[in-house]
Amino acid sequence: MEEGMQSYQDPMYFTCRSRRHCHKPLDPSKNVVARRQLLSVTILCLLFMGIEATGGVLANSLALFSDVLHLGSDLINFLVCLSAHWLASKPMTQKMTFGYHRAEILGAFFSVIFIWVVSGVLCYIAADRIVHGHYTQVKPDEMLVTAAMGLLFNIIISSVVRIFAYNLRITSDAQPHSLHHKTESDKEEDKATQKTQQPKKPRNINVRAAFIHVIGDTIQSLGVLLSALVIKFAPSQAYKLADPICTFVFSLVVLITTMAILRDVITVFMEGVPRGIGFASLKKDLEDIDGVVTVHSLHIWALTMDTTAVSVHLVIEHLHQHDEVLAAATRLIQDKHQVHFTTIQVELFRDEMNACEDCLRFNQ
């Protein structure tokens, strides 16, 4: 063990840290920074939507309109995210005992579905233009100027998101775990936590969704710019097919970029184990605690992508080991595996546990 590192088994470790019990305090600064980030992006998005919509009308370009509609879907996504953050900041109630954390997951889900619907409508309009030959009326000069502005805008907005994402990580690392006045014991606790815990990058799903949408829009704006160049400098009217064809390509890009978000949403809805926490690894760490005979009924699930809960039963041989095992397990789960809500049941070993099918199946 490295010098200065406190073990989860060290009595002094869980003696000075036993004041924290069933939950690890959530860092409110994460959501504050996320809200600022989303609000800034929302204002920029709304501003450029008007500019690009005007350019789309002047250029008679479906590709530009598709970019406007995707910006509109992103705007709705940002607004849903902001609303979800506001709901998630509300305290728990007797009816909503975990609070409203999953409001942001619902927001991400509906924004993805809306984007898919918009993409389907745009593909239908693009197909109609190809069939009826309406693509020949595109004005390349207006399209080129607007597409260049769109690319510049998306580069700016993606930079804003990256800066705020960096600040989100820095703020998370710098924030204390408690809001009360720090005593010497508190400082010892924070120092021990920093040495033992593994750093975990904050993953707010709505901020991540916003960033993925912006990256998709940047790729789309680049495609619109390239198609505008093709239409302007190509000698044949047939090359103006690039406008509706870009719409199909962009819709595919949007579908691909939103699949990762949908996968995370499904993981949360199905109460699956979130990425970053290994079931086998956590189980082995718990089994390695002095005094633990066996581990069963281990459940790991995500309340959101950055808020996790764990419940587990730990079996011990002697009653006097109860407090030490409970303290060590709590610290290990919260600090090493970065779990926010823990429910640990410590129970004495009984012979019938060897015949319990559920326990035997769990330990296979």
From TrEMBL:
Keywords: Ion transport, Membrane, Transmembrane, Transmembrane helix, Transport, Zinc, Zinc transport. It is found in: Membrane. GO terms for cellular component: plasma membrane. It holds the Pfam family ZT_dimer. It is a multi-pass membrane protein. SUPFAM superfamilies: Cation efflux protein cytoplasmic domain-like (SSF160240), Cation efflux protein transmembrane domain-like (SSF161111). Residues 41-269 form the Cation efflux protein transmembrane domain. Residues 276-347 form the Cation efflux protein cytoplasmic domain. One of its GO terms (biological process) is response to zinc ion. One of its GO terms (molecular function) is zinc ion transmembrane transporter activity. It comes from the Eukaryota. InterPro entries: Cation_efflux, Cation_efflux_CTD, Cation_efflux_CTD_sf, Cation_efflux_TM, Cation_efflux_TMD_sf, CDF/SLC30A. The chain crosses the membrane at residues 38-62, 68-88, 108-127, 147-165, 210-235, 241-262. Residues 177-201 are annotated as: Disordered. Residues 181-193 have a biased composition (Basic and acidic residues). Belongs to the cation diffusion facilitator (CDF) transporter (TC 2.A.4) family. SLC30A subfamily. NCBIfam families: CDF. This is Zinc transporter 2. It comes from Candidula unifasciata.
